[in-house]
């Protein structure tokens, strides 16, 4: 089936990035009134819930928290506006959270309401649904203005699987519904905002008696936690294997605290990752002095290569994260590195932004007390074991799962714990092997190219991968352009910062 009206803009993906594009688009029109009207924007989202995406909506648990403190989460003026809103609406959302968030909500509210009242935003890690609600309010205002001003914003539930270039400088987008029936729409411009590069499937779905969860957010995390709970109640074997020690793995440990599930139903959880490390705790107090001796030496000598700079930055970041991650020092190091980079060749700068920057960030991955306390408790009581190694495979013979991995010496090893549950938290995979049909097709037809990071799509100064095909959100990772001077593009503060720039590019050619 084909929908004949041509859209001015089609946004593929209906998460937070799409919301921020629409909010900024409407604000820009409110200020300049430059559109030829009517103007058609269509948003295609494969999930039924629009506007919040994985992190801020119903795919996440109501108890999922932001990873950084509120102070670090947003930059001013957004931070001040958001914090004011959190305080003004406190009675409504605390009541809702208390009623729907169970034991974890009770604990969180008890600890954090006094901190909110004292404006101690440096030590508050808010439930993510709150930011989702805040974003939705801004989006509602934008949608209202659009409806009153002949900007027609339509929604399609479906999965975009391909884009074809037409002869008349427009694009045809192929959309599949759940029954695999296809629809086509035509658009002058396309913005792809489909989140991060998808996680690689590591194993087939559940077989025999083993519960295998390839993606905790596939349907939504609550459904998967329920499956996990049912499995542990009904199975004598109560051991879980988790592949990955990233933010999702950490969130899982926290969510398992609900109903005391962790203590009652789990015998052991084994985590495996190449780093063998979870995010560290964030320091509560500011550093008395910023200490970055390796970078200071480089500045003093004023002669360095890209490798010297990377090594110095890595050493100083390691010092800043000896026990807790000291954010003042981290910010100083990032600022200094960016400055020192300017003396190197463009090729070195590009490579740093695409690859080394992300590697350096891993040294100082950090999280708050709520998430880390259950981890430390689990390690102390030996319920949690962490292996440094690389996952090879899972064999599921005899109704149990057995892990084979390469240990630090690169030797193939079989772990001696039998598992009844296996959960994949391995994170975004290399786009050369992507399981996103859309990305696979766009890469094959040369409408977009993988950038140096292997986890992002190459764009020009105007966010275009091809003329009038724009990318936005975490897939911008690995670009270094005048508009994108960052090496970490996944956080919402970066997406907020970049949205007006994208909108200005979209409007330039309207
Ligand atoms: C669990 C989790 C926790 C996070 N926590 C934080 C945090 O604490 N702080 C922070 O700053 N950032 C956090 N992030 C980062 C977060 O990715 C960004 O902040 C931002 O929300 C990304 O939004 P998005 O719209 O680009 O992507 P998403 O939220 O992934 O939304 C993309 C949407 O596109 C849809 N889609 C995908 N493919 C297709 C297709 N082919 N056709 C149609 N629709 C498609 C998806 O269904 C989804 O609705 C977190 C991310 C996750 C996943």
> What ligand species are in this complex?
flavin-adenine dinucleotide
First-last Cα distance: 28 Å
Secondary-structure-based class equals: alpha/beta
How many structural units, i.e. domains?
4
Number of strands: 19
Rg of Cα set: 24 Å
CATH superfamily of the largest domain: FAD/NAD(P)-binding domain
User: Assembly type of the shown chains?
Assistant: single chain
Please give a structural write-up.
The protein is of the alpha/beta class. The chain folds into four domains: 2-58 and 132-197 and 432-508, FAD/NAD(P)-binding domain, CATH 3.50.50; 63-126, no CATH class; 211-279 and 367-424, FAD/NAD(P)-binding domain (3-Layer(bba) Sandwich), CATH 3.50.50.60; 282-363, no CATH class. Helix content is 40%, strand content 19%. The chain is built from 17 helices and 19 strands. The chain has helices at residues 16-32, 53-56, 70-73, 78-88, 90-100, 102-117, 128-148, 221-234, 247-255, 261-265, 293-301, 306-320, 327-341, 346-363, 369-380, 437-444, 492-508, and strands at 2-12, 39-45, 151-157, 159-165, 171-176, 182-192, 211-213, 239-243, 268-273, 280-282, 324-325, 366-367, 384-388, 390-395, 402-406, 412-414, 421-424, 464-466, 469-471. The strands form four sheets. Strands 1, 2, 3, 4, 5, 6, 18 and 19 form an eight-stranded mixed beta sheet that branches. The protein has a five-stranded parallel beta sheet with strand order 7-17-8-9-13. The chain has a three-stranded parallel beta sheet with strand order 11-10-12. β4 (159-165) and β5 (171-176) form a beta hairpin. The radius of gyration is 24 Å and the shape is globular. The protein starts with a strand and ends with a helix. The model has no long low-confidence stretch (mean pLDDT 93). Bound molecules: flavin-adenine dinucleotide (FAD). Flavin-adenine dinucleotide binds next to α1, β2, α2, β4 and α17.
């Amino acid at each position: 089936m084909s929908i004949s009206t041509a859209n001015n803009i089609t946004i593929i993906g209906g998460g937070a990035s799409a919301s921020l594009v629409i909010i900024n688009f409407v604000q820009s029109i409110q200020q300049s009134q430059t559109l030829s009207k009517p103007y058609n924007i269509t948003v295609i989202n494969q999930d039924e819930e629009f506007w919040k995406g994985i992190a801020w909506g119903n795919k996440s648990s109501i108890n999922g928290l932001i990873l950084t403190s509120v102070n670090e989460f947003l930059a001013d003026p957004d931070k001040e506006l958001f914090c004011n809103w959190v305080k003004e609406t406190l009675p409504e959302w605390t009541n809702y959270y208390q009623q729907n968030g169970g034991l974890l909500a009770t604990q969180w509210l008890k600890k954090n309401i006094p901190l909110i009242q004292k404006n101690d935003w440096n030590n508050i890690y808010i439930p993510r649904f709150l930011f989702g609600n805040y974003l939705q309010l801004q989006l509602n205002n934008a949608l209202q203005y659009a409806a009153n001003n002949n900007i027609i914003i339509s929604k399609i539930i479906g999965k975009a699987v391909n884009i074809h270039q037409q002869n008349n400088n427009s694009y045809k987008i192929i959309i599949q519904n759940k029954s695999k029936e296809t629809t086509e729409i035509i658009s002058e411009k396309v913005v792809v905002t489909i989140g991060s590069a998808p996680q690689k499937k590591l194993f087939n779905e559940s077989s025999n008696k083993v519960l295998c969860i390839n993606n905790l957010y596939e349907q939504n995390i609550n459904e998967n936690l329920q499956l996990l709970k049912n499995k542990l109640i009904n199975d004598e074997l109560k051991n879980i294997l988790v592949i990955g020690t990233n933010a999702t793995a950490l969130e899982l440990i926290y969510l398992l605290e609900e109903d005391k599930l962790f203590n009652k139903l789990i015998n052991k959880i084994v985590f495996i990752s190449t780093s063998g490390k979870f995010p560290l705790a964030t320091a509560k107090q500011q550093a008395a002095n910023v200490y970055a001796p390796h970078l200071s030496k480089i500045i003093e000598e004023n002669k360095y290569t890209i490798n010297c700079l990377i090594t110095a930055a890595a050493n100083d970041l390691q010092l800043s994260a000896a026990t807790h991650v000291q954010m003042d020092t981290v910010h100083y190091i990032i600022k200094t590195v960016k400055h020192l980079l300017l003396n190197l060749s463009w090729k070195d700068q590009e490579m740093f932004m695409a690859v080394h920057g992300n590697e350096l960030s891993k040294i100082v991955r950090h999280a708050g007390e709520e998430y880390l306390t259950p981890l430390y408790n689990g390690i102390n009581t030996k319920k949690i074991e962490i292996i440094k190694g690389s996952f090879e495979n899972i064999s599921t013979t005899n109704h149990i799962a057995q892990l084979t991995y390469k240990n630090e010496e690169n030797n193939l090893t079989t772990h001696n714990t039998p598992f009844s549950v296996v959960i994949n938290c391995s994170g975004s995979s290399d786009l050369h092997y992507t399981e996103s049909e859309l990305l696979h097709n766009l890469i094959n037809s040369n409408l977009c190219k993988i950038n140096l990071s292997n986890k992002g799509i190459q764009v020009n100064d105007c966010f275009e991968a091809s003329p009038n095909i724009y990318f936005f959100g975490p897939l911008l990772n690995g670009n270094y352009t005048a508009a994108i001077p960052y090496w970490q593009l996944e956080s919402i503060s970066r997406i907020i910062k970049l949205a007006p720039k994208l909108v200005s590019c979209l409007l330039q050619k309207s």
